[in-house]
Amino acid sequence: RPGLALCAGCGGRIQDPFLLRVSPDLEWHVACLKCAECGQPLDETCTCFLRDGKAYCKRDYSRLFGIKCAQCRAAFSSSDLVMRARDHVYHLECFRCAACGRQLLPGDQFCLRERDLLCRAEHGPPPDGAAA
């Protein structure tokens, strides 16, 4: 299809012998497919992520759009183990009592007051509906 396709990056016709197809409806000149954030060339050697018609490298896509730890606000890697409390997600090492700093482990009772995790052992029973 060279010569018929329009590049999603620059809008020009793709007349090159090769083009990169990122999704069924988006095709790019090889030289135009770059991360919208850092400019890294995106080719068959790296993972490409699309959002709102823009292409991103994995690092920038995770940083900009990925779930962030409720405590440290850093993104998660695919190998991270996490803890959850209601709508919040935490790195294991960030899942700590806000008052005493004790790391909360699976099975520990705690309460969530606004954005603060509190261990139940030191800070008493939670108010109605706040137990997790």
TrEMBL record:
<dbReference type="Pfam" id="PF00412">
    <property type="entry name" value="LIM"/>
</dbReference>
<protein>
    <submittedName>
        <fullName>ISL2 protein</fullName>
    </submittedName>
</protein>
<dbReference type="GO" id="GO:0000987">
    <property type="term" value="F:cis-regulatory region sequence-specific DNA binding"/>
</dbReference>
<keyword id="KW-0440">LIM domain</keyword>
<dbReference type="GO" id="GO:0007409">
    <property type="term" value="P:axonogenesis"/>
</dbReference>
<dbReference type="InterPro" id="IPR047169">
    <property type="entry name" value="ISL1/2-like"/>
</dbReference>
<dbReference type="InterPro" id="IPR001781">
    <property type="entry name" value="Znf_LIM"/>
</dbReference>
<dbReference type="GO" id="GO:0048665">
    <property type="term" value="P:neuron fate specification"/>
</dbReference>
<dbReference type="GO" id="GO:0000981">
    <property type="term" value="F:DNA-binding transcription factor activity, RNA polymerase II-specific"/>
</dbReference>
<keyword id="KW-0217">Developmental protein</keyword>
<dbReference type="GO" id="GO:0045944">
    <property type="term" value="P:positive regulation of transcription by RNA polymerase II"/>
</dbReference>
<dbReference type="GO" id="GO:0005634">
    <property type="term" value="C:nucleus"/>
</dbReference>
<keyword id="KW-0479">Metal-binding</keyword>
<dbReference type="GO" id="GO:0046872">
    <property type="term" value="F:metal ion binding"/>
</dbReference>
<dbReference type="InterPro" id="IPR047244">
    <property type="entry name" value="ISL1/2-like_LIM1"/>
</dbReference>
<keyword id="KW-0862">Zinc</keyword>
<feature type="domain" description="LIM zinc-binding">
    <location>
        <begin position="5"/>
        <end position="67"/>
    </location>
</feature>
<feature type="domain" description="LIM zinc-binding">
    <location>
        <begin position="68"/>
        <end position="129"/>
    </location>
</feature>
